[in-house]
Specification:
Elements: E1 36-39, H1 66-76, H2 83-89, E2 93-99, E3 111-114, E4 116-121, H3 122-135, E5 141-149, H4 153-167, H5 184-190, E6 194-198, E7 208-209, E8 213-216, H6 222-236, E9 244-247, H7 259-262, H8 269-290, E10 296-299, H9 307-313
Parallel strand pairs: 1-2, 1-10, 2-5, 5-6, 6-7, 8-9, 9-10
Antiparallel strand pairs: 2-3, 3-4
Helix pairs in contact: 3-4, 6-8
GO molecular function: phosphoric diester hydrolase activity
Pfam families: PI-PLC_X
Domain Phosphatidylinositol-specific phospholipase C X: 25-198
């Protein structure tokens, strides 16, 4: 996925290593000032049709009906390629929602979820990410863990211990008076290319970051999403010094209006997403030209419509 950046400028020749190919003057730029591609509900390609329905609450009692689970999976699937494929495509931020299965015979096993639980457990996926990070030491990965469905304090401590065990010395400590906001160069120098955000009060660990603010439009209408995001970014301003996410993802209605998108045999939800993405990417470029502080940009179907290349391109002068 080559990217031409104009005469005399560095060229990204592969999105799998785009951070290491950024122009040298960006190496000392705080990471919150870089445009970083991310995936929304990153693990939904792996949802388990045999899982009980975790959400919405109105459908939990119908978990025993396979067609109900199939409808939930259809509505909840926002990604169609694996974590490793997303990494290879250039995605560097991952939205990871965690659940513990009630009555699971293994009390220390956790899963990702969105409507249903995933087939693959959390530790297995984290080890896959760690293996990728080992092979790409100059690519900085941001993992945002949140929601923690059916957790208690003991489960939090078990998961936190697992995270620290898997990534070890790769974990970049959160900002402190002794450790300022990381840059590409400071991460490279320390060999710390994994940042884990753990969005829960149980997180008291210096190796784990607090939750990252995620702005989204809460709508299926691209124009509404653009308007809400523009308003949120304007209120935020350019002086804030922390990570944030601009979510280009569509959000399904929580009432019966959802049936329009999951029962229409002539127009699948993925097609609706694909139609909306080019328009929102055009909005993104226009917005960035006015306020060049976008940071993480997250989307559904991250390998579609040059999403990654469009976001990475924002790191070059327009």
């Amino acid at each position: 996925m080559a990217m031409s950046t104009g005469e005399g400028k560095t060229e990204v020749t592969s999105n799998s290593d785009w951070m290491s190919q950024l122009r040298p003057e960006l190496h000392d730029t705080p990471l919150y000032k870089l445009a970083i591609p991310g995936s929304h509900d990153s693990m939904t390609y792996d949802l388990d049709i045999n899982s009980a329905i975790i959400e919405p609450d109105e459908l939990k009692k119908w978990s025993w009906i396979i067609c109900a689970r199939e409808l939930v999976r259809t509505a909840a699937t926002t990604q169609d390629v694996t974590i490793t494929q997303q990494l290879d495509a250039g995605v560097r931020y991952f939205d990871l929602r965690i659940a513990h299965k009630t009555n699971d015979p293994d009390p220390n096993k956790f899963y990702f979820y969105h409507g249903l639980c995933t087939r693959t457990d959390v530790e297995t996926v984290l080890r896959d990410i760690n293996d990728w990070a080992e092979k790409h030491p100059k690519e900085i990965l941001i993992l945002a863990l949140s929601h923690f469905k059916d957790f208690n304090e003991e489960l939090h401590q078990s998961l936190i211990k697992s995270i620290k065990t898997v990534f070890g010395a790769k974990l970049r400590n959160k900002v402190s008076t002794q450790d300022p906001f990381p840059t590409l160069k400071s991460c490279w120098d320390k060999g710390t290319n994994v940042i884990v955000s753990y969005d829960h009060s149980a997180n008291q660990e210096p190796e784990l970051w607090p939750g990252i603010k995620y702005y989204y439009g809460n709508s299926m209408d691209p124009a509404t999403i653009e308007s809400k995001l523009e308003s949120a970014l304007h209120k935020r301003g350019s002086k804030a010094q922390d990570f944030f996410v601009c979510g280009l993802n569509l959000t399904l209605p929580e009432d019966t209006g959802v049936l329009k998108y999951i029962l229409n045999p002539c127009d699948k939800l993925t097609n609706v997403i694909k139609r909306s993405l080019p328009r929102m990417l055009q909005w993104l470029k226009q917005q960035y030209s006015q306020t060049p502080y976008m940071n993480i940009v997250a989307s559904d179907l991250v390998t579609c419509d040059d999403f990654v290349s469009t976001v990475v391109q924002l790191n070059w002068p327009q």
